[in-house]
């Protein structure tokens, strides 16, 4: 049985005004169904795990929403970060807590805010990753690139073929030219932040590279199932090193030949902005995508419009005439309209709101 | 002193979702100031008339709003049509009521839903029209065409020059080719539905061409200032002929050489749709026009956008990035987004709502 760890953080600024600090993107139904992203993340693991062996690591302000959206999850499996301490502390805490229960367990980390359309292909990759993990490797699932993307980090593999490959190094986000060369070579995969390993193998690398962080997490985990959990957290967590898991562990492990990867092709999308979301979700004959919430009452009337992405969340009628490739996000207190190819710039709007202290809209 | 008659009818379907059957366009602040169109219509008559000599003719469902928006108007000057009976009955009733007070008074009819930017030039035209009216003519104010418009009727003049001209005939909305020829010739003016005449001269023509309509209106007017007003209205009004004033009186009067016109160039706009509205109102440096209501709380953030017309009426934040020549109309229960050059097609949305019986949105 696989332990599944779901890191649930990140505001999803480029999905404003839907995604807010108080209700970030993983809590929203951006899947084309009534499931939220985090519900879909748990759901697509299907028979590979169970509620008892599924853990979410999330911020204090989202714990209640997570608990309600995943009612089958035991309460102690919602790991609440009192303060954000980046991905190494978050994933490392889960690994340490799992190790308390089962020291040689295999765990996979699957971010709460990704979309995957081909669940069967995804599960096959996870199973291949588990094989590598059982052999002692720190495995990742890498995404076979489909375009020269400059927004992601890459994994450089030692080969351009094979269902399981060795990772030579973790590569930063490239410029356009490099991204094109990476795509061409076939040796590079997108780093999607999905990991699979035996917790003992991971914790050994953590102890080697980040001994203080390792010891702190171990001490918290030792108290996890007893009465001193909160005290330990309060005492240790705030002083833990803020560092990403790639910097803290994976790069060093790759240099030691300890990291493997499974190239995945399963319709992966990190739901970065409304434009890319519209590319992956099924639309009508004109390519219009309406992302209605489960309890949506409002209607959407699109007349002679193509490639329009509508997110109706206010219950009002939304009418458009003659629109092409536009985004309309309609919430109770804010409306966004932009061309699809400008959807990334929504971040600038949010930055402007921050500067002005318009916190109720963030 | 000029009697001013303000016909206040018409739903303004192409201004949906702002303009509604229950709150049509003349009640809205579409002037670039906090004044509604009807308030601006009364306001621009300035010293030419007074509240005592200003009358509004409107439907029963708008009487209360009109009375509140024009608090200085005596109550008996709000002429309420129990049922719509087209423009000849509406304007004719006002003429007959004025004739009861002052049989040789000069009245002008100025529709409640037009925008005029150069008030001084407008007033000069009105005064020129009054001169013609005092000489016994049925005067109109014609608009000097600025484009080959196919959406208006035209006045064919007997000359292409002069501050006052004779109107040879009223011409229907032309096709593109004819409209271009009209523009070229200089002999054609747009028929803007603005009239100035001595009420005795108008009523004589009405009696000659529409004797039944004339007699009915005269009988209602005779009872206007007494206790039998409502009875007379109920008895006579519903059976009055439904006919426009152009068909009923003006075309026949023109054939008799009785109609004159004053060509006007004063930034006239009939507020037909949001596109043309955006052309006439002052925008920011990028040509964006925000039509905020007086009590608007919501904010509009336009980032790298040009030529966008925003009508914020819900109090929400409206944010746009990278938009060009678009229309955003944001009301409590409905949102419209379209390119400016498709703004006329909003009517099709409204027709669709009618077909489906979505009366609360009309």
Structure report:
By secondary structure, chain A is an alpha/beta fold. Chain A has 2 domains: 3-269, Spore Coat Polysaccharide Biosynthesis Protein SpsA, Chain A (Alpha-Beta Complex); 283-361, no CATH class. Helices cover 32% and strands 23% of the residues of chain A. The first copy, chain A, contains 11 helices and 17 strands. In chain A, the strands form 4 sheets. The first copy, chain A, has a 5-stranded mixed barrel, surrounded by 4 helices. Chain A has a 4-stranded mixed sheet with strand order 12-14-16-17, covered by helices on one side. In chain A, helix 2 (63-69) links the parallel strand 2 (54-59) and strand 3. In chain A, helix 3 (86-101) packs across helix 9 and helix 6 packs across helix 9. Chain A starts with a strand and ends in a 7-residue tail after the last helix. The relative contact order of chain A is 0.15. The mean pLDDT of chain A is 94. The interface between A and B is medium-sized, with 35 and 35 residues. Chains A, B: Pfam families: ManC_GMP_beta-helix, NTP_transferase. Chains A, B: Its EC number is 2.7.7.13. Chains A, B: One of its GO terms (molecular function) is GTP binding. Chains A, B: Keywords: GTP-binding, Nucleotide-binding, Nucleotidyltransferase, Transferase. Chains A, B: Residues 4-281 form the Nucleotidyl transferase domain.
